[in-house]
Amino acid sequence: MRLNTARLFDGLGGNLTRTRLRRALQVLLAACAFFALTGGTAHADEQTLQVRVQDASETKKVPVEGVHVVVTDASGAVVAEGDTDEKGIAKITVPSDGQFTVTVDTSTLPDGLTIPDGEESRTVNVTAGLGGNAAFNLGHSGPTAASKASLFPKAVFNGIRFGLVIAIMSVGLSLIYATTGLSNFAHAETVTLGAAMTWTFASWFPLSDAAGGWGAFGTLLFASVLGIGTATLFSGGLELGVWRPMRRRGAGLTAMMIVSIGIAIFVRFAIQFRFGSQPKSYKQFASQTNLNWGPIGVTPRDLAGAVLALVVLLLIAGMLMYTRIGKAIRAVSDNPDLASTTGINTDKVILTVWLLGGALAGLSGVIFGLDEQVQWNMGTRLLLLMFAAITLGGLGRPFGALIGALVVGIFVQLWAWWFGNFTDLKNIGALAGMILVLLFRPQGILGKKERIG
Questions:
Q1: How many structural domains comprise the chain?
Q2: Which of 30, 59, 86, 91 lies 20 to 30 Å (CA to CA) from residue 156?
Q3: What pLDDT digit, counting tens, does each position of 162-177 carry?
Q4: Given a cut of 80, is residue 285 above it in pLDDT?
């Protein structure tokens, strides 16, 4: 029998190779088990607890270094401690996961900084693999609740500022009512349209960050012109396409009012579909630091909005008092038929009023969007306040709408000032103020008494 030596050596080599692989695998598994049972267990359960201490007394929080922090377990035994670094952070290793109490050693706080009573300790849940976090905010004398008396000037100032924004909307609505007799519920959506389109254009045409504040201002100014123009065209389009044909066909004011409600609902949800339901801010001015004058604090954008609203209202007042078109608007408001017989083109005047009302509504939407945020239903939220302003000032009286809007704005903010826990109901303050005034002066502040019957 012949012996195949090559096959024999191949077989012996394969057996030797498998034997070596098996032994190497056994050695590797043994090493892993050794490290897992020895060195690995020494720190397997240890977790990192990160403690942050910062000075929150200023607008921008500042890290506090050198504060000693003690960590105790459920039994009260100290398990770890450490000091905060230049970033105000102390990374402390605790023996296991679970619940621990983190306490700040108040004797190590820098001079002039304190921590509110009862807030020296935090209970922290430490999770395996994730660790835990605790934060402590310090102050120069600890946070104290401001008295209502100290907050009163700010409430009045905010009321005047808010009233000026409401006044821009209300003056346009009052002029429309005075010249046509229509209670235009779609006016609220004109406000929203101006704000939403301004935000859209601002996001389309951003200027470079290198341009700085003036670049942001230029972007918003350009977008505002387009947004206000859109609101103006929308309002004028309603007059030419809906209200004028209805008036010529003898439609009653009640029917026209119901049509305005239908238009408002359609436009409102069209804006929501296109714009979205989430509030949005003009990113060019999303974050600003307050300017403080004693107890009154206001951001530059809100102050600029209030000043702009005041200037626009003064210009509108001057236009109504001293210009030819202003006198024509007042004449049509007093008696459209008599104005028509004197040669005034009433259709032209009414179209001008609708265009002016749309522009004012768009501008007020931009200012209100700067003050708060742009939302798809922001105009609807303000509609009741607009009608309250023109009712309080006297129906069909533009100057009365201005005074009524200031009263409404102040009463809204005073409600929020006095009933701090019920700020969601602050519009009740405006309605309460309106009822109170109308009880003593039913025709409104600047309204005229009319004979009934």
A1: 2
A2: 59
A3: 999 999 999 999 999 9
A4: no
260 within 8 A of 251, measured Cβ to Cβ: no
Distance between CA atoms of 343 and 441, rounded to whole angstroms?
36
Considering the domain architecture, whether residues 211 and 327 belong to the same structural domain is answered as yes
Expressed as residue numbers, the domain containing 128 is: 46-137
**pTM, full prediction:** 0.67
- Per the domain annotation, does 132 fall within a domain? yes
Q: Hey, which of 56-65, 303-312, 396-405 has the most confident mean pLDDT?
A: 303-312
| SS3 of the chain | CCCCHHHHHHHHHHHHHHHHHHHHHHHHHHHHHHHHHCHHHHCCCCEEEEEEEEECCCCCCEECCCCEEEEECCCCCEEEEEECCCCCEEEEEECCCEEEEEEECHHHCCCCCECCCCCCEEEEEEECCCEEEEEEEEECCCCCCCCHHHHHHHHHHHHHHHHHHHHHHHHHHHHHHHHHCCCCCCHHHHHHHHHHHHHHHHHHCCCCHHHHHHHHHHHHHHHHHHHHHHHHHHHHHHHHHHHHHHHHCCCCHHHHHHHHHHHHHHHHHHHHHHHCCCCECCHHHCCCCCEEECCEEECHHHHHHHHHHHHHHHHHHHHHHHCHHHHHHHHHHHCHHHHHHCCCCHHHHHHHHHHHHHHHHHHHHHHHHHHCCECCCHHHHHHHHHHHHHHHHCCCCHHHHHHHHHHHHHHHHHHHHHCHHHHHHCHHHHHHHHHHHHHHCCCCCCCCCCCCC
Distance of alpha carbon 360 from alpha carbon 240, whole angstroms: 18
